Amino acid sequence: MTTPVIELNEARRIYPTPQGELHALAGVSLTIQAGEVVAIVGRSGSGKSTLVNLIAGIDRPTSGTVRVGGSSVEGMTESARSRWRGRTVGIVFQFFQLLPTLTVRENVMLPIDFAGTLSPARAKDRATELLARVGIESQANKFPSALSGGQQQRAAIARALANDPPLLLADEPTGNLDSQTADKVLSLLSELGARGKTVVLVTHEREIARRADRVVSLADGQIAEITHREVARG
Question: CA angle, 158 as apex, 171 and 135 as ends, to 5°?
Fold first, then answer.
């Protein structure tokens, strides 16, 4: 049995508020294997964002453990987590978050520059390869504002893959796309899973979630249900 890419054991996250403690996550245990495409679904306030932030090392659990790629995330210092995240986790945001003053290729090169994983010349080649892989190599020298929403999301996926991380987190990646473009982006994410990447997809849309290998439904900070592909796809 291979070691899971993601292991959460009784992970809890409690935030202090003027009204008292907010239990954003109330003891979540979950394992995700390499190559799985897993959708996290639930209403607003169910704990989806908190769960993803713990997996990404953006936040720490109040109690419990979070291991990603064999590393204990909660035990790292801030600087160690930043370095670890740059090499281990690729994040795709709903609003793309491409830097407007950089070309599309330069945006994809940015994580490589931060992590220092490749020389500048090789980083440029890597960015070009990734843009070709997501089907927008012809847009490499343009600024993000010249691209359509779907093209920007593809550029964001290429950027997330820059350092070849084993894990890709996508937060509402189709929320600002039309249905046809959204379908293409989802197909791309599914293809990445088939190639061995672990993809965790956060979405409000059940129809999109049905494309995943497993659907993890959250409610009130807890796992309410886990549905496997055969049932989820109907």
Answer: 115
Q: pLDDT for 201-212, tens place per residue?
A: 998 777 677 788
Cβ atoms 173, 185 nearer than 8 A: yes
Helices (H), 28-178: 48-56, 78-88, 104-115, 120-133, 149-160
- Which one-letter amino acid corresponds to residue 10? E
Strand pairing report for 6-17 and 63-68: antiparallel
- 162 burial (CB, 10 Å; 0-12 / 13-18 / 19+) is buried
Of 161, 92, 172, which is closest to residue 131 (Cα–Cα)? 161
Q: Which helix (H) or strand (E) holds 192?
A: helix 179-194
- Rounded CA-CA distance 204/170 in Å is 12
Question: For the chain, which residues score pLDDT lower than 50?
Answer: 231-234
Measured CA distances, 63 to 12, 25, 56, 60, 79 (Å): 5, 10, 16, 9, 21
